[in-house]
Specification:
By secondary structure, this protein is α+β, with helices and mostly antiparallel strands. The protein folds into three domains: 133 residues, 2-Layer Sandwich (Beta-Lactamase), CATH 3.30.450; 87 residues, Helix Hairpins (Orthogonal Bundle); 150 residues, Histidine kinase-like ATPase, C-terminal domain (Heat Shock Protein 90, 2-Layer Sandwich). It is built from eleven helices and twelve strands. β11 and β12 form a beta hairpin. It is rod-shaped and about 150 Å long.
């Protein structure tokens, strides 16, 4: 199964977005500890300042601590210590004060002036301490850092709940963002694709201009232009060879045909020599036919086919061909369905060759007691006709490649007529004849195992009805 570049980009961008979202959550969880502790230190300092402002008279540390514990969330027993230097502390407070003095910590000024904060390790725990000068003394408030961590956990839980609620919106955002990125990324590639589709060989404009594309594509476009130049040169050389070879072969083949015809007339009728010369003459005729086809194809490639248009009655042309088919293939069941009388303005010789090749293939690759069905009608100034026939060809893989030059499709059994096989140019000629008449031709295999050649050519004249 072919891989999809769009799906590849979509999955890559989606994976990057999801990975970024997960990584950002981990980074926030890992890096938010210190900023949150600093923020809670500011909050603690503000609460301390508010208690100091409401205190009247002598500061009672027990009352002061009790009031602070009521205002700070997630404070458990023994999570807070309050003391003032130069006062006789309790045993626990003295141990904390001694640890604070022994660690020689650095104090950081808070935005709430004149408070300062620091962190110490005591009693196998991390403590956050704020201090402020009051009445020539230093008031210290220490809080177990786990209190701040509990508050942080609550905030992160709220964040997670919001993220779950916003999850559908985030998914939609990721999809829309990814679709937009894919559109932006693929737009220059689509522009290149359209530019490639417009290039045809041989053409002097068979190259791309780097100025019309992003600079990242400059190297690729340069390689492409160099490749197209080599292909164009090879194509022109091959077309010139076909034309030159066809021209050079026509004269000697015509001379050989003349000599063979004269020799055939000179030898006794029915003799072995006459039979051998007749076989050689048939091969020469075949070579002349191939050279004429090559010449026509080379003229078609160069756009030098001149049409001598005249009115052609399609009903009469097809009817005459079917009468001829009945005369030597009476076993075939022939059907014809033409809506009204259809007249086209086209080159009679080329249209005759087109029909002759198509009917010839329908006969050649048919089996005994098979069928050929011709249908035609006019649609929007074009005549649409289809030739469907039963076939002895292997239908698997039978497609429009049969219109390629020298392409030969495998057969399941020998054709009914045992004549020489074709050159692989007949349907190529049909394609060029249809193309020069402003139409197209395609092959279709039906469910009942019939091969249908569908053709459209320009009408150039109104349709007549009975």
């Amino acid at each position: 199964m072919r891989r999809s570049f769009t799906l590849h980009v979509f999955l890559s961008v989606t994976l990057c977005v999801v990975a970024f979202a997960g990584a950002s959550r981990l980074v926030v969880r890992w890096a938010s500890g210190e900023p949150f502790q600093l923020y809670f230190s500011e909050v603690l300092a503000q609460h301390v300042q508010k208690e100091l402002d409401t205190t009247v008279g002598q500061l009672d540390l027990n009352v002061f601590q009790t009031n602070l514990e009521k205002t700070i969330l997630h404070v458990h027993a023994n999570d807070m210590l309050v003391f003032v230097d130069n006062l006789k502390p309790s045993i626990e407070t003295a141990a904390f004060e001694g640890s604070l003095a022994s660690q020689k910590v650095a104090w950081e000024a808070l935005q709430t002036k004149p408070f300062e904060t620091t962190t110490i390790e005591w009693d196998a725990k991390s403590w956050r301490v704020v201090r402020v000068a009051i009445n020539s003394q230093q008031l210290y408030v220490g809080i177990n850092a786990d209190v701040f961590q509990r508050s942080l956990d609550d905030i992160l839980k709220v964040r997670n709940k919001i993220a779950v609620t916003m999850f559908p919106i985030l998914i939609a955002y990721v999809l829309l963002t990814t679709a937009f990125i894919i559109f932006v990324v693929l737009k220059p590639i689509r522009n290149l694709q359209r530019a490639f589709a417009q290039i045809k060989l041989p053409s002097p404009q068979a190259h791309l201009d780097t100025k019309d594309n992003f600079k990242e594509f400059a190297t690729f476009i340069r390689y492409f232009n160099e490749l197209m130049e080599r292909l164009s040169a090879n194509y022109t050389q091959a077309a010139r060879f076909s034309s030159d070879a066809a021209h050079e072969l026509r004269t000697p083949l015509t001379i050989i045909r003349g000599h063979l015809n004269r020799l055939i007339n000179q030898v006794p009728d029915g003799s072995g020599t006459q039979i051998e010369l007749s076989l050689v003459s048939e091969e020469v005729e075949r070579l002349i036919s191939i050279s004429n086809k090559l010449l026509f194809l080379s003229q078609a490639d160069a756009g030098k086919i001149d049409l001598e248009k005249e009115d052609i009655n399609l009903n009469d042309l097809v009817g005459q061909m079917m009468d001829d088919i009945k005369s030597y293939r009476s076993d075939l069941m022939l059907m014809k369905t033409i809506e009204g009388v259809i007249q086209i303005k086209a080159d009679r010789d080329l249209i005759f060759q087109l029909m002759n090749n198509l009917f010839g293939n329908a006969i050649k690759y048919n089996y005994k007691n098979g069928s050929i069905d011709f249908q035609a009608r006019v649609i929007r100034h074009q005549v649409h006709f289809t030739i469907c026939n039963t076939t002895n060809l292997e239908l698997d893989g039978l497609d429009d490649r049969i219109f390629h030059r020298f392409y030969r499709h495998l057969q399941t059994e020998a054709p009914v007529n045992d004549g020489a096989t074709g050159s692989g140019l007949g349907l190529s000629l049909c394609k060029e004849i249809v193309k020069v008449h402003g139409g197209d031709i395609h092959l279709r295999v039906t469910a009942d195992k019939k091969v249908c050649i569908e053709c459209r050519i320009s009408l150039n004249q109104h349709r007549k009805n009975f």
